Amino acid sequence: MREPGRPKGEAFLVEMRGIERTYTMGDNLVRALCGVDLTIERGSSVAIMGTSGSGKSTMMNIMGCLDQPTKGSYRLDGRDVARLSRAQLADVRGRMIGFVFQSFNLLSRTTALENVEMPLLYQGVPARERRRRAERALEQVGLVGREDHHPNQLSGGQQQRVAIARALVGEAPIIMADEPTGNLDTRTSYEVMAILQGLVGRGKTVILVTHEADIAAYASRVVTLRDGLIIDDRRQAPISAQAALAAAPAAHASAGASP
Asked: Does domain 14-251 match CATH 3.40.50.300?
């Protein structure tokens, strides 16, 4: 059924139908997802919530083309990706999804610019074009002048900005952020969420995976899982991260917040 207010004939960016995922652990069969239906439209912000064991990480892995369902259909931008080979999944993942992780996942011996360039290197993009696109991505997250800094020369907030720039550089339509503020102080969390909200304003689809209700409040839709099932799916007016940042006290120099 077409969603109210949705243009006729417009396809969902993400469409999961009857998704199940089971694992064998010793003699036990674990049902991580139990027949999940989920659709996400282009240019939206969605928070996937749930406690440990709820199935949200499994859903993220399938949605991010890192894993495949045991049963069900998953269409990403109209293409059925549920049964692709690993090589095909990797290709789709590289073109469609940029990942941001809680632990940043930056290479410690490479500069911010080189970290951002890395996905383009794997895609075979020429060096000059890699540098141009990486510099532009760092500019988008407010890190002009930090291109030659290594991760240990950057604050936690700045490292997460580098990670966001790396997710942006491939020009993927989806940014998938897994607990993106988990290692950050409050003010720096506002800064990161303001960047992610700004990406939605520019047409990106941002999917947050979190167990924190205060982070989910920055999304326009919250999907809650429990025991492998969606138990709640609601839309909301998201909190403005820019407004929260403006109201927050200035960070101390030792707090590690980005300038």
From this structure: yes
Rounded to whole angstroms, how far apart are CA atoms 161 and 28?
Answer: 41
Cα 36 to Cα 34: distance, rounded to the nearest angstrom: 6
Q: Where are the domains of the chain?
A: 14-251
The pLDDT of residue 74? 95
Q: Are 254 and 156 in contact (CB under 8 A)?
A: no
Question: What is the spatial distance between Cα 215 and Cα 188, in angstroms, rounded to a whole number?
Answer: 13
Q: If we measure between CA atoms, which residue out of 173, 181, 189 comes closest to residue 257? A: 189
Q: Could you tell me the CA-to-CA distances from 130 to 35, 116, 139 in Å, in that order?
A: 41, 9, 14
Sheet bearing 97-101, strands edge to edge:
97-101, 174-178, 205-210, 45-49, 221-226, 229-235
| pLDDT tens, position by position, 65-76 | 999 999 999 999
- In single-letter form, the type of residue at position 89 comes to L
Cα 245-246-249 angle, rounded to 5 deg: 80
Q: Using an 8 Å Cβ cutoff, are 96 and 63 in contact?
A: no
CA 189 – CA 230 distance, rounded (Å): 27
> Does position 2 have pLDDT exceeding 60, yes or no?
no
